[in-house]
């Protein structure tokens, strides 16, 4: 969820993760009740909100049009995509992002809803300027490994009453796991870290989240799609991102793989999926 946008992943990704770890609790249908529990959702476009969205959660989410923002290029852009064969999808968060989908945001009165506002930190102790050194792991009699707490860089140890949750991002989480002895054998050995759990994929397969912003000069400025032009002076336009649609569609994988191979100098296997 970036810049206030509220976008779930594709259901196929969740189902693939469940298959990968052999645990059905990671699949889309298992996550859906938690998605719904999080949301207080509204959109006049949804005919099946009770099945996909929640109305009793702390995070207020809504489609752009439900906020009263009618941007000047909304319909022309929709028509342009339709001319290319990309038509409006029912819901960007229903498990399939293919098509032209209405942007959904997490905002209240124009303000982005952040976790600390949606979930008050009552009873939570926050340690600032504190660096975690590693996760403490104990071995049960049946040789099962269990995380029991953390050790700070100062040497202080904090025991967990229930569980240890790592929430440090795509780079710091694998770093912390490997510092804790959880990771690929060769990498841990190279840094002199005693291995506790062999997990060869830790630290691998990081994908960048790419964004390519583009600015265009309109042939017909009277459309009023720019800040300051008469049609763009509705105060409601400032209550969120000046966006209407998110578009997702498939591409010719053969051409894409050839381009990646040419740019990277590495031969991309034909069976790679995008």
Give an overview of the whole structure.
The structure is a single chain. The chain is α+β, with helices and mostly antiparallel strands. The protein folds into two domains: 11-110 and 239-264, 2-Layer Sandwich (Glucose Oxidase, domain 3); 132-198, no CATH class. The chain has eight helices and eleven strands. Strand 4 and strand 5 (111-112) form a beta hairpin. It starts with 10 loop residues before the first helix and ends in a 10-residue tail after the last helix.
Provide the structure class: alpha+beta
The CATH class name of the largest domain reads: Alpha Beta
User: Which fold name fills CATH's third level, the topology of the largest domain?
Assistant: Glucose Oxidase, domain 3
For the record, the CATH architecture of the largest domain stands as 2-Layer Sandwich
Q: What kind of oligomer do you see?
A: single chain
Largest sheet: 4 strands, mixed
Gyration radius, rounded? 23 Å
Give the full name of the CATH homologous superfamily of the largest domain. Answer: Glucose Oxidase, domain 3
Strand order of the largest sheet: 1-2-4-5
Uncertain runs = none
Count of structural domains: 2
The helix count comes to 8
- What is the helix fraction of residues, given as a range? 25-40%
- Outline, from the CA principal axes? globular
SSE inventory with pairings:
Elements (H helix, E strand, L loop, with lengths): L10 H11 L6 H11 E4 L6 H4 L6 E5 L10 H10 L15 E4 L1 E5 L2 E2 L2 H4 L13 E8 L5 E8 L4 E3 L9 H11 L2 E2 L1 H6 L6 E2 L46 E4 L4 H12 L10
Parallel strand pairs: 1-2, 9-10
Antiparallel strand pairs: 2-4, 3-11, 4-5, 6-7, 7-8
């Amino acid at each position: 969820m970036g810049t206030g946008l509220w976008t779930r992943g594709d259901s196929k990704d969740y189902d693939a993760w469940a298959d990968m770890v052999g645990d059905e609790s990671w699949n889309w249908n298992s996550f859906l009740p938690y998605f719904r529990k999080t949301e207080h959702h509204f959109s006049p476009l949804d005919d099946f909100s009770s099945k996909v969205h929640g109305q009793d959660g702390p995070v207020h989410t809504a489609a752009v049009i439900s906020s009263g923002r009618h941007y000047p290029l909304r319909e022309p852009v929709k028509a342009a995509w339709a001319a290319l064969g990309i038509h409006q999808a029912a819901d960007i968060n229903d498990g399939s992002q293919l098509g032209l989908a209405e942007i959904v945001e997490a905002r209240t009165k124009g303000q982005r809803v952040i976790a600390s506002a949606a979930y008050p930190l009552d009873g939570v102790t926050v340690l600032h300027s504190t660096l975690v050194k590693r996760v403490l792991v104990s071995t049960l009699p049946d040789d099962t490994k269990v995380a029991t707490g953390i050790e700070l860089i100062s040497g202080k140890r904090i025991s967990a009453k229930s569980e240890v949750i790592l929430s440090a991002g795509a780079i710091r989480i694998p770093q912390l796991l490997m510092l804790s002895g959880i990771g690929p054998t060769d990498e841990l050995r190279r840094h002199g870290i005693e291995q506790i759990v062999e997990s060869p994929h830790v630290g691998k397969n990081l994908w960048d989240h790419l964004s390519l912003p583009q600015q265009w000069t309109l042939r017909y400025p009277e459309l009023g799609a720019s800040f300051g032009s008469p049609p763009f002076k509705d105060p409601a336009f400032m209550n969120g991102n000046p966006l209407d649609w998110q578009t997702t569609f498939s591409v010719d994988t053969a051409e894409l793989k050839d381009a990646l191979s040419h740019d990277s100098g590495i031969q991309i296997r034909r069976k790679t999926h995008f």
